[in-house]
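Look over both lines before class:
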Amino acid sequence: MARIRICLLFVLMWTTAMGQAQQKLQVQGSSPNLHLVHTVAPKENWYSIGRIYNISPKEIAATNSIGMDKPLAIGQKLKIPLTDANFSQDGKKAADEVFVPLYHTVQEKEWMYRISTTHNKVSIENLEKWNAVTNDQLKAGMQLIVGYLKVKQSQSSLASQGSQKIQIATNPPAVVKETKQVEAITKETPPPAKDETVKTDPPKTETTKPEVKEEPKPIEVTPTSNSGPANHRGGFFKKQYAEKGNSNTGNAGIFRSTSGWNDGKYYALMNDVPVGTIVKVSFSSTNKSIYAKVLGQLPEMKESQGLIIRISDAAASELGVSLNKFYVEVKY
């Protein structure tokens, strides 16, 4: 009888471990509190669970507000925090680690921009590359990779479903570049931003050394596209624009994007307009227009109140915008 019980116990442990290893790991929560949920199996303890997810058992206990002196119960749910130690969205890991994909289930009316914002602002380019899907193809219920768990090959039961390398978008430096550009737009003082970059070139005296330590990064990642406003004659989507008699006027805002500066692919967020629609945004103060593809609805946040549309920072740059809110006419 005792042997039968032992055999049944081992079978239960094996099936539980296999089930956890094969099921897709779902990311829970939102930045900066992303986590996984683990169901305690027979014979597991703080240390064995820590080895599965490549994280200190102390961090698991702290995340769950439980003391490590308390024994775990079979079936107990534990939050497994995702930190720099065990979570990657940049393709970096130790030599003895592998990447295990982590997923997010797409909800109704959810698009890449919102998913990116919720998951550490991972670039939309990476989301599209990891999942071989574009924003236009998103559907509720889809399983979308939003990052990777880094686990030790020799310690984690999840390692069997891991890989040595992941694809990363080829333009990560642009994130730094656009951050500087958006700061210039939102501060309503784009000219000073240009002056600062010019001032860093001529000075060669010793007194400028402290500034040079901070300035090289934007200078190195600044291709010709960031030496001035974006100028793509309306943008990449101009040829796809087909006006159907719809128009709206009102205040517009800006959001950050790595797209548009080099390729002219401008994007917009707008309510009650189908995803994928190309809209024409005109700014009367400069008599300029750009053409942008709608990624989804305006995010439900304080900054969106009173806006009819938000456009990418590169698009705002081509319009010659110098304010964080500006009046536009939108046609589509």
